[in-house]
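Exercise 7.
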Amino acid sequence: MDERISEPTISVGMGKQNPQGSARPAGETVEDWVAALTAIPDGECSWWSPHIWTRNYSLAADWIGGHGCAIDIDYEDPTREGNRHTELPAEAWAEFFELAGDDRIPGNLIHATPRGARVVFLFDQVCTHRDQMRGAMEAAALLVESALQREDIEAQLSAGSGNLRAGFSVDRACLDLKRIFWAPRCTVAGARREAPVVAVRSRKYVLAELRLDEEPAESKEAKTAERAESSLVDAVKSWCEANPIDFSSKTCPMCGHNECFGPLDGDLSKWFCFSANHLADSGGIGKPGSSPGTAFGDALDIEAHRRSVAPAEVLRVDGFLVDDLSHIDISGLVDGRKDKRAWPIQILKLDAVLSITPPPPIIEGFLREQDLAVLYGPPGVGKSFVAIGLALSVASGMDWMGMGIEESAPVLYMAGEGVYGLHKRVTAWAGGAIPARSPLWRNWNQCNDLVPLLDPVGFRTLLDVIDEEGVRPRLIVIDTLARAMTGGDENSAKDMGLFVLRCAKLRDRTGAAILLVHHTRGDGERERGSSALRGAADVMIALSSDDEVGGVRLSVDKTKDDEPPDDMLIHLERIALGKTDKGKEIASLRAILHSGEDMSDALGAKPMAIVEVLKQQPAGAPEMSFGDLHAATKIPKSSIGRIVRLLEDQGVVQVSMSGRSKIVRMLDLG
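Solution. The predicted structure, written as tokens, is:
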């Protein structure tokens, strides 16, 4: 038997996306439980639950037991407009606390919440049957409701049975096997909670007696129908209260536009987007605002859009919608929900157009947030070295090619080629040392392939993984487009259009710039594949060999809204990283700005072409003959021998004989 079942245990966690852990009271008494709950660390969104799960607390199927249950009580004022939940008045809590201390409120321990109270029932034995636990929770809720009525502190929410009156009511969204509760001492949306846990009854409840007598089916249906609308509305409001809107960024998380997102008339529970393109670009999320195209709504709008599910599914998965109500359509009860046209069309006025501000720069005059950029060049020109240098410069906040970067920011580097040498390239960029400030993320699977963006499941998984990291990258590098487009045809405008749409979705979700590393056509003049890529790109960056200086020329041949910067000459500097066990030097390259001085220590474009071709050979066989190298690189046969000798002298390749042919084998170069 799981130790968490055999011994008193509570589940704990820190943030909804984090794995759960567990804590154990020191003993069997109610006072031991009070101490355990009080000891839960003060942290951002720290939570606890009396329920125990095998893996995922958000799945009822993973529930395996519980040593008690918790009943949430809200303080509600029906005379308030809009949200009737209100902060718990001090005098109301004092009255509730006194009643509980006099044994007139059921439960074993209580603590206040910002808008009510929580009553915890402890069982005399562990409950491992779902139906029994549901019955126990329902019975506990009815005990609390009866006490609230008996003591005349129950909220009167309907004028049909008397005057409207503020008071307490049970939040039935807590009657769920997936429910978690904020810890008595935790921080939510920057607000610190400090709620002492108080023991009010030392004798635990007998689980076998804490149940409901079977009701007639007609009575159950009538009760369900009676409370359906109230419970659903409460579930929406409870979820929104537990998941405050993040207004730290002015970028709208639904339409993706900048400098347009904020609270509605100072109400932090409602958002407002004043972008005239919001409804068109978000798919109609929210209730129309006073100006054309604008909209407002609540936190549930944002989360349902993020997960690409219905609002009811968010409530159900998060445990705010009890199982017997989860089938009901709540679209009419959720603020900001309405029938949407499939293709909303908005006509912008000039003042709305003039209010749109461009995204901030990542590298001034070169790359901005939310740009779709393409870095392309022929094999061996050094594309990955340039891309890694750019990514690490953004990640560490260091200048790149003489251009300033204001501050460091997270970078997601999705490497599909040369991933096993990536650590050497990173170290070479730092001059032979491991860089101290470079949060470079790598993403590849065991097959050395990128997540295929055209695959719906793979793409959805990628978005979920980024969300789970909890950090928004400012730049995402995809190296290479071909690896990320597995299953699609680069030359097909339809496939390339879908790939571009996926990149746009990735950009809109994160707000990051997307940099695609791509190959050129056979003639080396333009990028490979459909022109749909160039049409959609904000920036096109070409790399080509410059034989006069023995380096690489970087040219920006397309920008949508800015003057392209001057061409750059880049030097691929060789960096020694150590030696192998046999004394061979290990080296890699880094891309730096060409100073105009002698570059004889660089490999140069033609040697790099040979290196890249060798690296593309199947794993375990990185070797080719001189003739094969000529055919693959188009380097004249008369030059192959000289270049190979240069690479051999620098410890990059090894030459051996196979019969009468010379074979070139790749050594340990990143």
